Amino acid sequence: MIHRMKRLVAAAALVAFAGAASADPKLIEIASFGEHPALNEVAEGFKARMAELGYTEGKDVRYEFRHANFDRTLVPQLLQQVEAQHPDMIFAITTGLNQAAVRGITNKSIPIVFGAVVDPVVAGIVPDWQHGSAWSTGASMLPNFDASFDYLKQVMPGIKKVGTLFNPGEDNDTSNMELIQKAAAKAGLEIVAVPVDNANDLPQRVQSFAGKVDAIFLIQSNIVQTSVPVVAQVAQRIRLPLFNSVFAPDLKGQLAGFHAISYLKNGQHAADIADRILKGEKSADIAPYVPQTVDFESYVSPEGLAAVGLTVPDALKDSPWILK
């Protein structure tokens, strides 16, 4: 009798093991506002970190990537396609897409992890910085403009006025502008902010900085970041150094430097949160990730400075910030 029971237990264990082994991998839908090197890095960082955490692609998890080609009118259709796949999780990239997902995904049992969101509280994605919502939490890209201005003062000693561009219709940009104004006041700098809600207007808006600022620093704005080469071309023409909050090594000949949050690390931090949810934690119990000092990178481009008649300060000539 005892031997028979042992055989039954062993058989049941084998059945359970076979069922677990044959279980379909979890589907994570990655939805982005558009394809851009920085936003793609968020997705790449997410997938790479998930692999480090033990999720083998094709076995434990599979990914479907979709984007709206930076067209707001396509977002509802994109989200319908995502939800129709009945995913185990959605990884949504950018503030606007997450706002739309929170409203538009009707199946609230699907957890939404966000990436590339500056301020999820102001955007209405989570209730506060200590909690996620019932179905959403993730990794923020809250900037550190105090550090950015410390960086600018080292690259350009004597700097007084900084120009920036923003889209007044984007919550992401509104949050950035509030933070940058506060940091500028602490740093003794003046911000000259120029609104732009259409990419076609960028050349004219950048031109308006001529003679009014010492440098231009670009925030994490979708409308601006998708057109940085255009901004750089005009900035060089009016002889103004251009600095960016997004690192783009291919533009080092056109930009003077970068004080940038790592989009790759943002995706990695989002994956850490996704792992916790997949293991049973509730989104509401997971605080959004706030970037730390190690999440930012500083670079200076001698070539980009030279393009507008400037040189690297002596104090930085041996700095690890220098791009070769």
Automatic annotation (TrEMBL):
Key words, A-Z: Signal
Pfam assignment, any one: ABC_sub_bind
Signal peptide range in chain numbering: 1-23
Ranges in a coiled coil: none
PANTHER family the record matches: ABC TRANSPORTER, SUBSTRATE-BINDING LIPOPROTEIN, ABC TRANSPORTER, SUBSTRATE-BINDING LIPOPROTEIN-RELATED
Listed name of the protein: ABC transporter substrate-binding protein
Species: Rhizobium setariae
